[in-house]
Structure formats: structure tokens, C-alpha cells
């Protein structure tokens, strides 16, 4: 039997009687989704709704000389054909910069290209029709006269003097640059016993959410209100942006987010075609729907990674790592994505490299450049897979150079578990991590020694197995330090409102959103535990800017740690309010009472005093029987934002066991392990599944996923058949373990877990492949994805 | 250009349906747009992801690779139908217990495809389950939990 009913609770100081914290409670919304009764934006149909399709630039860089729309306008079913210049009268352009990324620059981006298309796939003209099929038919009739311009595609030469500048007003193609230096790296390198260098290359890839991006915008001139059904991670952020660029006030905009078919960071950005859809609704005064098809998704959903990192590490013969140095270059397309910018990933690479290790000397340079390809921005585990692969790749190379086991070099350099609070090489601050405990745990789970012995045995039979490790750190629970301080109106705080209904159940409204990760379950568990009702008596409402407290939504692993804490505080506050009413009815001191299992009890004896339904009845229907001047408040709101630490760093370690077929270059993943420490575990099953899902996205990155462009800026594999994502048959079972170091920033002590899997999987698979190939004298592989041809090249066979 | 229209007569989840459809309309668009059966999803429209999986005359097919016009006279079943009949209730329960879905977008297709395997009887091993589900992409779960859930149902069904 593979289904464990309920995992043993992870002990926490929060254990109230009947606590759901630490229990694998099933998510409340699953039955609906399993019966085909979900409500994804793709499913939304409104009266008078029209559909939009876009003519997209076939060129990576081209001037738009003219757009001839006459034939399209008279095509069957067509309601409107709108060009960029026309739409610009309704919607203002945006610029994706943040003030705390010093010097970052970008050019104004329009909902539809005006005058110039800057990447293959940029929308240049919209056709709105009665059906999507008719809109697509009419797109064929839109004639765009393009003058092709020289595309800038290679990040390596984007800054060369001879390269055309994509946005002449900006002066050059440099979006952002960051330099960082700590300690005395030059001295450390000069005094090192060994210096190991490598260049790491990370392929561009993308999120491939199963449900493509989707939006239905409904401008109602009668109400002067815009309602947007949007598959987004951040409804309030989008409310602000729709309002701002349509010259509306925020209260005029309602964003509703129901079920979302996968996000992973893809659906937390401003997309020109979605903005255009919203503007078209305003223009046409009727609902307009846009659902990206898969081909459009590949050329417009944000891409990520695409970094080239030259790196070196200084090491002493005893294994002490004394310095890291990196030079990171990344090409982010023609615009920095709004409003989070496309500078964050490189910034994270600088922040996170070397992060698990005690290493005082560090130098980093990160440069972000413009190019004529699709835009890049934050995708799950922003920067982490790059920093982790560079760091862990270097650590393994250093170990190999000095002849030390990869485990041993980590033991010698990982920050000691009792050294906290402390800082990483880049100055990031750690409250409490557990690298050594995690390492010990993963080694025990995998039986490292036995695997090494088996590896040696099999090698004699010509079977080439590899074992790879990767320690990592993960940014979660971001405070305002992430975006707010840079001027973006992206909330780092979040709120939960809990109301007692007239039968004694509770309704929780929260600003965090459900993307399938289980936010609603977590909010319900925490609220039930804090307030004192069975979880079946909790309903959670998310994803509606009219009906939830203002909040940031779901990104950077913040829903459980930040939304969960707000739910905890709101639950406690409502409990106090309810006990005040109960005390007044019972003529008892509220402090002598508690709520357990939906009933008010004597705190000391546990004796049942009054049901919540009865408290609600009196408060709502017979308030006249309460003492004069007493007002029952059966709704409570609390907000939370981390204040003591800018980010709640978590840590963990992953391990991979794989086999390489040296004839074909094929890699078979045999087993994967991840131990992670996300503080208090609210729902062990949900955490494990977040980790597993994240691991597989990381495995996709390291083995398969790659947006392949030619030198003209054409995406060569923009479809599901040619762009490979992990399939069930290629993926290993993934064992997950936990170490628990709660954050003291919140009472709950929960940190995030959404990025951990993606952060570490590429690094440990890369290390495992190199571990398998090293005895064959292969060149070290430092590029991703590691395709069979990369393996064969490393072996010198092609 | 006036679209070519075709009259079709079929049963969908046991109910008789008579409709006039555009010849080019795919089965999944027909189910979603004309019949409001939005449980069948669209992930790629080119036959790779499996989100559009439905059953036609008892066989699992891709709703995006078949035209509605081809279903004249057919018996079509969708996730809504097999949910209402209770045919996969045990599988759904196992998916829920094991959290074998996150966003749920792949789930209707995944359930129908898993049911196809389970209907063959016996207890397939994990790699056989993985092999069978290889044409249904899930971006959220990493598949492990789905394999667990399917395996547990196979075990239970083979005992009972
Ligand atoms: S939508 Fe049919 S296989 Fe993807
Ligand atoms: S649960 Fe989201 S794609 Fe499978």
C-alpha cells in the first residue's frame, strides 16, 4: 500500500488540541478538479464575449512600415481589427525597471508593437471576432509590411561596439550590471593550493504550464468597471497594473482568479497580449477572451535561465574552499519584463552563489543584456538552479582536483549548523539553516556507502553509474526587500479575514492564491487549528480582489509562510472575539474559555460549555440579549509580513543516482533524493509534493528542456513535440526527507518549499553525470541540457 | 468563405446529441464549446500532452486529434461522465488521498488513461504504470504521486 493515511506530525510549539498543523490533510478543492468541474479561465464564457487572436511578427527584429487591415475587417465574424498605434490610445506603455536594481534600464513596451517588432512572436495587430477560429482566419488576411532589421541574438556579442543597439535611446544593449566583492578574493586565489575554473552554460527554457495563459476581460461601461478573469499568481498586482495603464482607479478593476492550470512563475508577469485583451475590452465595451495556444505560449511565455557563467574556486589541499568568483552573462530579450524586471535572476545568481559554504572571499560580476529573442524573466526558483549548479559543480571539481570525496569536501565547508545567525559570501543573512543535518540525513536515506560500493562493482561490468550531490539554499517568504523597496506595487504583506457564519463554521478570505500547490488547504489547516473548529467547517476564498484582503498572491514560496501566519493570527483574533461573546453569554471570564472542535469549553477542565452555532445565533439574531454596550465582532482580519529578516532562507540537499549509456549517450535516472528544511511543516504531504514537482522541473531543465534559437532569432522547436518536457516514464521515484528549523520571525515558523526541488536538481544530476563519466577520461560537462550528444561529445565519441 | 457544416448524431456520456458542426472543429472544441463539457482540457492541440483525453467507443483518444464530424454515430465519454457513473470513484479517491494532482489540469486525461490501464486487470509495476502514462504530461506533480495512486488502486482492485 503506497498511500500513507496520515504522516506522523512534525512537532511544533503550536500544537493546540486538535491541531491540523503537521498533518497531511487532503486539499479541499480536489474532488471538483478530478470530476472535470474546475473553473479555469479557459472555461469562462460570458454573454457577448468575443475572442481575440494576434498577428505576430515573423521576424526577430523588424520595422513595421504599414498594416493593411481592410480584408481582415470584412472577414466573417470579425468585430474589430486593431493595430498597435490604435490601441496605444487606450493603453499606456510600461517600462520594467526597479529602483533598487541600480542602473537597470529598459524601453517602453506597448500592448501591441508600435512601429517596430523586437522579437519573433511579438503581437503587432489584434483581430477580435465572434469565435477564436474566425479571429484566426482573419489574421491570415492582415497584411503587415515589415522591413527586416539586423537582429541581435548572441548575448556574448550584444555589448560589442559593432553590434546594433536595439533601443538607440538607451545608448547600449546593457540592461543591468551588478558587481560584488567580499573579503580578498585576489589574495585567496593567489594563496590557493588549487584553482579550478569552468564555464557553465544554461539553456533557455520555459514553464510550459499545461493550461496556457488565459484572460477574459469584461469592461462594463454602465458600471465603469473592469472585471478580469485571469490565470495569474498575483491578482492585486494585476489590478494595479490594469488600472494604471487604462487610466482607471484600482477600485474600478476587479481581478478574479479561479483555477489556474499551472503557473511556476510564468503567470506573475505583465504580458503584452493580455494587456491588449484588457484594452480591447475597454475599447469595444464587451467581454474579450484570449487563451494563448501552445505555439504562442512558446514564443511569448517568459523564458528563463540562458546564463553563461565563467567561474572559479580556490581550494586548499585540506579541502578548505577559500574563494569563489563568477562572471555571469545573460540575454533577456528586448525588454525587461514589467513590473518585476528581468534583472532579478542575475541578481539572485550573485546573491546565492557559494551560499551554503563558509567562504569569506567572493567576487561576482553579472551582466544582463538585451537581444531580439523572447523575453526572459522570473521562473520557478529564480537564479537558484544556476547558482547551485555553478557552486556545486565547482565544489565537485575542486574535490576531484585534490582527490577528496564529494561528501568530505562538503562536510569541511558547509556552514556549521550551530554557526547561526550568519551570512553567506554575498552578504545574504541566514537565520538558521541545517546543511550538516541535511547532508547526514540524505546520506542515510540513500545509503551512500552501499551505492558507492555498488557503483564500483557495476563499473567492472561496464555499467556506468553516477552519484551526484547538491547542497542548496532557497529564498522564501520575501519581505518588501524583494520588490516593494524598488518601487513596484507588489505587496509583500498578506492578509486573512475570518468570519464566523451563522451556524458556527468559518469562512477565510485570503490574498494568497491557489495554483495547485495547496494554499487553500494550508490556510484552512492553520485557521482551523488557531480558531478551534474541525477542518470540514472551514471554507477558504481566494483569488478575488473584491473579496479578499490586499495581498501579494503566490510567488517566491510565500503562501504558507506569509499567508499561513496571517491565517494563524486572524484565527487567534477571531477566537478571542468569539470567547468574549461566549463569556458574556455564560457570564464567564473569556480567558477561562477556549474553543475546541467547534465547541466553547472550559480551558482548564475541557468541559463543554456552548456550541459555536449557539454563540453565532445569539450574536446574529438575539444581540438584544447581550449586555448593553457589548458588540459582538465575529469577523477578524490580520495581516503579516516578515520584518526581522528580509528573506527566510531555507536549505536542503539533493542526490541523484543515474546510469549513462556510453554508446548512445542516454541517461537513465534511477533514483532521486531531496532533504529540505522549510521550517515548520504545516502539511507534510503538500510539502513533499511541492518538492517532487519542483525536482522534476529541475530534471527537465538539466536533461531536456531547451528553447533553441537560430542566429536569426527564430525559435526552432516551439511546439510540444520538439520541446521536450519530462514524461512519466523517464522520471525516477523521488524520496523526500525533512529537517525542521522554524523561523522565529513568525509564530508558525513556516518557510517556503516551492523552489527547493527546482533549485538543486540540475546541479546534482550534472554532478552525477560527471561522476559516471570521469573514470572514462571524459571532459567535464558544464552545460545544460545534458543531451545524449553532449554526453557523447564529452566522451570524445562525436 | 463559408465553413463546411456537418450534421452529427452521437451519444455523449449516455445522452443523445444532435448537432451541426463545422467540419474543421475538433472533438475537444466541440465538447467544450458546444456542449459545455469543460472537463476535457486543451494543452497543445497537437496531440502531445494528453490534456484532451476522452473515450470514443470505449477507446481512449486525443480529443484534439479527432474531428467532431468523425464522431457521428459514436459513443463519447468524458471525465464528467465517468465521474457521474462512479466508474473511477476509487481512482479519484486515491488521487485525492495521495495528492496526485496539483493544478488539476492534466488530471481528467490522467484519470481516463490510468483507468484504461487498470481495466486490463492485474497489478502493473511502477515502470509499466509510468510507461502507460507517458503520453499524459503533468507539469506539477513530478508523476511520483500519480504512480502511487494508480498502483494502490491496482492493488485494491486485484484483491477485491
Ligand atoms: S491538447 Fe490534445 S494532446 Fe494536447
Ligand atoms: S496537476 Fe498540474 S499539470 Fe498535472
Structure description:
The complex is a heterodimer of chains A (798) and B (160). Chain A is α+β, with helices and mostly antiparallel strands and 798 residues long. Chain A has three domains: 185 residues, Aldehyde Oxidoreductase, domain 4 (2-Layer Sandwich); 193 residues, Alpha-Beta Complex (Aldehyde Oxidoreductase, domain 3); 328 residues, Aldehyde Oxidoreductase, domain 4. Chain A contains 19 helices and 29 strands. In chain A, α14 runs parallel beside α15, α15 packs across α16 and α17 packs across α18. Chain A is globular and about 85 Å long. The two termini of chain A are 46 Å apart. About 1% of the residues of chain A have low confidence. By secondary structure, chain B is α+β, with helices and mostly antiparallel strands. Chain B is built from six helices and five strands. In chain B, strands 2-1-5-3-4 form a five-stranded mixed beta sheet. In chain B, α3 packs across α6. Chain B is elongated and about 50 Å long. At the A-B interface, α1 and α17 of A face α2, α3, α4, α5 and α6 of B. The structure holds FE2/S2 (inorganic) cluster (FES) (2 copies).
Amino acid at each position: 500500500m503506497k498511500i500513507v493515511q496520515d504522516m506522523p506530525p512534525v512537532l511544533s510549539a503550536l500544537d493546540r488540541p486538535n491541531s491540523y498543523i503537521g498533518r497531511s490533510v487532503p486539499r479541499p478543492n480536489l474532488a471538483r478538479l478530478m470530476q472535470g468541474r474546475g473553473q479555469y479561465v479557459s472555461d469562462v464564457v460570458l454573454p457577448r464575449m468575443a475572442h481575440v487572436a494576434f498577428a505576430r511578427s515573423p521576424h526577430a527584429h523588424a520595422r513595421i512600415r504599414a498594416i493593411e487591415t481592410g480584408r481582415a475587417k470584412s472577414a466573417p465574424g470579425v468585430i474589430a481589427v486593431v493595430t498597435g498605434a490604435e490601441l496605444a490610445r487606450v493603453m499606456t506603455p510600461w517600462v520594467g525597471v526597479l529602483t533598487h536594481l541600480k542602473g537597470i534600464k529598459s524601453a517602453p513596451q506597448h500592448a501591441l508593437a508600435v512601429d517596430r517588432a523586437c522579437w519573433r512572436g511579438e503581437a503587432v495587430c489584434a483581430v477580435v471576432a465572434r469565435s477564436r477560429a474566425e479571429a484566426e482566419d482573419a489574421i491570415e488576411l492582415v497584411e503587415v509590411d515589415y522591413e527586416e532589421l539586423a537582429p541581435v541574438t548572441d548575448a556574448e556579442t550584444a555589448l560589442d561596439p559593432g553590434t546594433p543597439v536595439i533601443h538607440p535611446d538607451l545608448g547600449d544593449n546593457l540592461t543591468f550590471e551588478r558587481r560584488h566583492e567580499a573579503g580578498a578574493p585576489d589574495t585567496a586565489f593567489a594563496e590557493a593550493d588549487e584553482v579550478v575554473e569552468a564555464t557553465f552554460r544554461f539553456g533557455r527554457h520555459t514553464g510550459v504550464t499545461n493550461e496556457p495563459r488565459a484572460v477574459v476581460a469584461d469592461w462594463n461601461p454602465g458600471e465603469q468597471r473592469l472585471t478580469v478573469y485571469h490565470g495569474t499568481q498575483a491578482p492585486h498586482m494585476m489590478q494595479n497594473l490594469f488600472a494604471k495603464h487604462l487610466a482607471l482607479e484600482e477600485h474600478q478593476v476587479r481581478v478574479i482568479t479561479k483555477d489556474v492550470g499551472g503557473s511556476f512563475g510564468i503567470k506573475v508577469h505583465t504580458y503584452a497580449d493580455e494587456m491588449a485583451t484588457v484594452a480591447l475590452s475597454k475599447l469595444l465595451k464587451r467581454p474579450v477572451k484570449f487563451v494563448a495556444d501552445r505555439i504562442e505560449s512558446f514564443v511569448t511565455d517568459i523564458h528563463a535561465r540562458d546564463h553563461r557563467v565563467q567561474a572559479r574556486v580556490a581550494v586548499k589541499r585540506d579541502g578548505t574552499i577559500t574563494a569563489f568568483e563568477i562572471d555571469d552573462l545573460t540575454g533577456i530579450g528586448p525588454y525587461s519584463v514589467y513590473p518585476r524586471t528581468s534583472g532579478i535572476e542575475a541578481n539572485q545568481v550573485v546573491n546565492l552563489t557559494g551560499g551554503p559554504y563558509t567562504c569569506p572571499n567572493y567576487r561576482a560580476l553579472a551582466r544582463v543584456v538585451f537581444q531580439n529573442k523572447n523575453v526572459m524573466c522570473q521562473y520557478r526558483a529564480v537564479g537558484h538552479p544556476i547558482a547551485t549548479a555553478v557552486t556545486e559543480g565547482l565544489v565537485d571539481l575542486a574535490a576531484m582536483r585534490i582527490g577528496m570525496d564529494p561528501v568530505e569536501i562538503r562536510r569541511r565547508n558547509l556552514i556549521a549548523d550551530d554557526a547561526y545567525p550568519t551570512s553567506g559570501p554575498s552578504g545574504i543573512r541566514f537565520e538558521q539553516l541545517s546543511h550538516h543535518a541535511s547532508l547526514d540525513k540524505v546520506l542515510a536515506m540513500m545509503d551512500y556507502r552501499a551505492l558507492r560500493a555498488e557503483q564500483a562493482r557495476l563499473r567492472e561490468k561496464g555499467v556506468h553509474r553516477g552519484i551526484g550531490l547538491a547542497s542548496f539554499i532557497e529564498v522564501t517568504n520575501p519581505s518588501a526587500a524583494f520588490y516593494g523597496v524598488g518601487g513596484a506595487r507588489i505587496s509583500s504583506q498578506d492578509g486573512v479575514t475570518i468570519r464566523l457564519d451563522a451556524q458556527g463554521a468559518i469562512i477565510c478570505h485570503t490574498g494568497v492564491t491557489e495554483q495547485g500547490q495547496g494554499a487553500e488547504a494550508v490556510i484552512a489547516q492553520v485557521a482551523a487549528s488557531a480558531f478551534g473548529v474541525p477542518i470540514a467547517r472551514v471554507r477558504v476564498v481566494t483569488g478575488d480582489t473584491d473579496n479578499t484582503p490586499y495581498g501579494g498572491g503566490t510567488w517566491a514560496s510565500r503562501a504558507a509562510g506569509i499567508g499561513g501566519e496571517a491565517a494563524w493570527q486572524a484565527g487567534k483574533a477571531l477566537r478571542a472575539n468569539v470567547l468574549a461573546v461566549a463569556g458574556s453569554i455564560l457570564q464567564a471570564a473569556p480567558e477561562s474559555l477556549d474553543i475546541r472542535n467547534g465547541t466553547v469549553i472550559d480551558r482548564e477542565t475541557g468541559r463543554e460549555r456552548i456550541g459555536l452555532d449557539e454563540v453565532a445565533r445569539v450574536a446574529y439574531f438575539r444581540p438584544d440579549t447581550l449586555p448593553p454596550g457589548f458588540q459582538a465582532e465575529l469577523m477578524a482580519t490580520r495581516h503579516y509580513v516578515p520584518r526581522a529578516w528580509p528573506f527566510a532562507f531555507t536549505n536542503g540537499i539533493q542526490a541523484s543516482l543515474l546510469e549513462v549509456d556510453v554508446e548512445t549517450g542516454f541517461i537513465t535516472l534511477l533514483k532521486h533524493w531531496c532533504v529540505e528544511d522549510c521550517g515548520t511543516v504545516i502539511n507534510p504531504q503538500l510539502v513533499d509534493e511541492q518538492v517532487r514537482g519542483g525536482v522534476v522541473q529541475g530534471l527537465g531543465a538539466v536533461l531536456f528542456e531547451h528553447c533553441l534559437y537560430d542566429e536569426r532569432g527564430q525559435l526552432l522547436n516551439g511546439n510540444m513535440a520538439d520541446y521536450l518536457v519530462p514524461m512519466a516514464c523517464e522520471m525516477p521515484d523521488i524520496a523526500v526527507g525533512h529537517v525542521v528549523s522554524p523561523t522565529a520571525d513568525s509564530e508558525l515558523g513556516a518557510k517556503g518549499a516551492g523552489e527547493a526541488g527546482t533549485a538543486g536538481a540540475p546541479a546534482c544530476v550534472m554532478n552525477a553525470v560527471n561522476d559516471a563519466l570521469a573514470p572514462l577520461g571524459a571532459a567535464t560537462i558544464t552545460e545544460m541540457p545534458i543531451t545524449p550528444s553532449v554526453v557523447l561529445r564529452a566522451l570524445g565519441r562525436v | 468563405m463559408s465553413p463546411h457544416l456537418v450534421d452529427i448524431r452521437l451519444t455523449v456520456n449516455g445522452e443523445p446529441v444532435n448537432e451541426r458542426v463545422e467540419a474543421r472543429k475538433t472533438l475537444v472544441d466541440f465538447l467544450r464549446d458546444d456542449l459545455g463539457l469543460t472537463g476535457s482540457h486543451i494543452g497543445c492541440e497537437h496531440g502531445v500532452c494528453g490534456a484532451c483525453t476522452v473515450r470514443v467507443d470505449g477507446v481512449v483518444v486525443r480529443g484534439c486529434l479527432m474531428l467532431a464530424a468523425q464522431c457521428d454515430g459514436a459513443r463519447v465519454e468524458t471525465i464528467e461522465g465517468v465521474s457521474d457513473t462512479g466508474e473511477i470513484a476509487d481512482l479519484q479517491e486515491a488521487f485525492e488521498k495521495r495528492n496526485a494532482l496539483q493544478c488539476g489540469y492534466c488530471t481528467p486525461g490522467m484519470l481516463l488513461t490510468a483507468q484504461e490501464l487498470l481495466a486490463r486487470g492485474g497489478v502493473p509495476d511502477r515502470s509499466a504504470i509510468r510507461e502507460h502514462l507517458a503520453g499524459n504530461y503533468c507539469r506539477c506533480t513530478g508523476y511520483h504521486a500519480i504512480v502511487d495512486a494508480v498502483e494502490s488502486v491496482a492493488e485494491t482492485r486485484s484483491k477485491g
